[in-house]
């Protein structure tokens, strides 16, 4: 898994309650580093072995975030009792649907499943049931839930995490990278078993099962609306014409990145897009003087970016983007006191109650109930604020039954506070 937040989580200092005896370094998989499966014949053998295996299957995927366009998988790792560990090259073997079918009915064990499931789905691997060790750790009350720190605190082994941000699209993959990838699934089922035991002790296992089922049932995420608005630093851009420059440069960059299969940030930095939007350069010479468009950039590239700026400059007023994103739900909470003081009071009471109960249960507030769900409920509460009506509202907003059971009494009281 290649996620900067995950790496930072692993690097965070341990809390007192998580610090135990020195961990034993895990330096190599118990059966050694397997050869990479990279042809149809080898894949057939893998499918047969995993179909004949027993118990849950540990699954992980490595992407090339920051190097390549999109979030495709460049290595897939699996481990199952009776089948051992395999490393599959999804570039050489782009269709793993036969392997997915062979694992039908098998529980998949992933760490931070929502990160890897989209790229696994793209190559034909979709679980019917899963166990997410990161989410299980959150529900069990662990302060840090990165894979490395979880394996260390729960199982007593330390994993090397030095290759999490490498370019997994490279070929051939170096042996140390493959060893790291294999170790990511080496103890995943062991971690799953230990967390299941802990959740059972805390009376939270059924909660976890509901959460895992919701992940499996969730449809693929729809494309983001106006993805250019997520450009880092875009909040500095106030005028509509300048926003149009951001949009044109972002769209041009995205086309170039997709065509060249490069991370958009390697084509043009977000900071350069914002600088050009604020300056709205008159020509290539002015553009070249801006940060991010320096002497290393060829004239043809500069002309490409200036053409995007010029398109934005020619747009009629009616086609310029509006500042801010269209609001589809409640307004930002900071404005509630002015817009609807009663709703602001409901939200304050609901937040306090949910936060306090989450602390009692030793789990993050957002796992007890999503903040957006709390906001939407408080902005448009059901008439009468009866417990069953509150439960229906939560259900319609996607809350799981265990969340409804835990929060309806609290929220009913909070909603009635201003009545």
TrEMBL record:
<dbReference type="InterPro" id="IPR041605">
    <property type="entry name" value="Exo_C"/>
</dbReference>
<protein>
    <submittedName>
        <fullName>Ribonuclease D</fullName>
    </submittedName>
</protein>
<dbReference type="GO" id="GO:0003676">
    <property type="term" value="F:nucleic acid binding"/>
</dbReference>
<dbReference type="Pfam" id="PF01612">
    <property type="entry name" value="DNA_pol_A_exo1"/>
</dbReference>
<dbReference type="InterPro" id="IPR012337">
    <property type="entry name" value="RNaseH-like_sf"/>
</dbReference>
<dbReference type="InterPro" id="IPR002562">
    <property type="entry name" value="3'-5'_exonuclease_dom"/>
</dbReference>
<dbReference type="InterPro" id="IPR051086">
    <property type="entry name" value="RNase_D-like"/>
</dbReference>
<dbReference type="InterPro" id="IPR010997">
    <property type="entry name" value="HRDC-like_sf"/>
</dbReference>
<dbReference type="GO" id="GO:0008408">
    <property type="term" value="F:3'-5' exonuclease activity"/>
</dbReference>
<feature type="region of interest" description="Disordered">
    <location>
        <begin position="1"/>
        <end position="23"/>
    </location>
</feature>
<dbReference type="Pfam" id="PF00570">
    <property type="entry name" value="HRDC"/>
</dbReference>
<feature type="region of interest" description="Disordered">
    <location>
        <begin position="316"/>
        <end position="339"/>
    </location>
</feature>
<dbReference type="InterPro" id="IPR044876">
    <property type="entry name" value="HRDC_dom_sf"/>
</dbReference>
<dbReference type="Pfam" id="PF18305">
    <property type="entry name" value="DNA_pol_A_exoN"/>
</dbReference>
<dbReference type="InterPro" id="IPR002121">
    <property type="entry name" value="HRDC_dom"/>
</dbReference>
<dbReference type="InterPro" id="IPR036397">
    <property type="entry name" value="RNaseH_sf"/>
</dbReference>
<dbReference type="GO" id="GO:0006139">
    <property type="term" value="P:nucleobase-containing compound metabolic process"/>
</dbReference>
<feature type="domain" description="HRDC">
    <location>
        <begin position="239"/>
        <end position="319"/>
    </location>
</feature>
<dbReference type="GO" id="GO:0000166">
    <property type="term" value="F:nucleotide binding"/>
</dbReference>
<feature type="compositionally biased region" description="Low complexity">
    <location>
        <begin position="1"/>
        <end position="19"/>
    </location>
</feature>
């Amino acid at each position: 898994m290649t996620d900067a937040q995950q790496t930072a989580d692993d690097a965070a200092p341990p809390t007192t309650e998580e610090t135990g005896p020195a961990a034993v370094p895990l330096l190599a998989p118990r059966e050694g580093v397997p050869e990479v499966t990279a042809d149809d014949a080898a894949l057939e053998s893998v499918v047969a072995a995993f179909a004949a295996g027993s118990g849950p299957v540990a699954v992980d995927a490595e992407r090339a975030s920051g190097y390549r366009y999109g979030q495709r998988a460049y290595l897939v790792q699996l481990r199952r009792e009776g089948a051992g560990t395999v490393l599959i090259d999804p570039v050489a073997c782009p269709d793993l649907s036969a392997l997915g079918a062979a694992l039908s009915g098998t529980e998949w064990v992933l760490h931070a499943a929502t990160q890897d499931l989209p790229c696994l789905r793209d190559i034909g691997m979709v679980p019917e049931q899963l166990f997410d060790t990161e989410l299980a750790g959150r529900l069990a009350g662990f302060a840090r839930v990165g894979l490395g720190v979880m394996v260390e605190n729960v199982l007593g082994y330390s994993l090397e995490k030095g290759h999490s941000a490498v370019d997994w699209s490279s070929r051939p993959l170096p042996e140390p990278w493959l060893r790291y990838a294999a170790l990511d699934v080496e103890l995943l089922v062991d971690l799953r078993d230990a967390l299941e035991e802990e959740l059972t002790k805390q009376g939270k296992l059924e909660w976890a099962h509901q959460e895992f089922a919701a992940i499996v049932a969730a449809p693929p995420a729809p494309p983001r609306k106006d993805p250019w608005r997520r450009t880092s630093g875009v909040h500095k851009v106030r005028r509509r014409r300048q926003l149009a420059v951001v949009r044109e440069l972002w769209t041009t960059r995205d086309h170039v990145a997709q065509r060249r299969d490069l991370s958009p940030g390697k084509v043009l930095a977000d900071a350069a897009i914002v600088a050009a939007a604020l300056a709205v350069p008159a020509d290539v010479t002015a553009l070249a003087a801006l940060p991010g468009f320096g002497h290393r950039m060829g004239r043809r590239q500069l002309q490409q970016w200036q053409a995007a700026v010029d398109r934005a400059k020619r747009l009629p007023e009616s086609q310029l983007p509006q500042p801010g994103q269209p609001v589809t739900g409640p307004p930002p909470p900071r404005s509630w006191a002015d817009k609807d003081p009663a709703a602001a009071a409901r939200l304050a009471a609901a937040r306090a109650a949910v936060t306090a109960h989450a602390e009692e249960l030793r789990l993050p507030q957002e796992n007890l109930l999503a903040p957006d769900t709390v906001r939407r409920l408080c902005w448009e509460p059901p008439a009468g604020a009866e417990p069953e009506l509150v439960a229906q509202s939560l259900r319609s907003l996607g809350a799981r039954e265990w969340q409804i059971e835990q929060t309806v009494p609290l929220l009913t009281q909070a909603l009635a506070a201003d009545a």
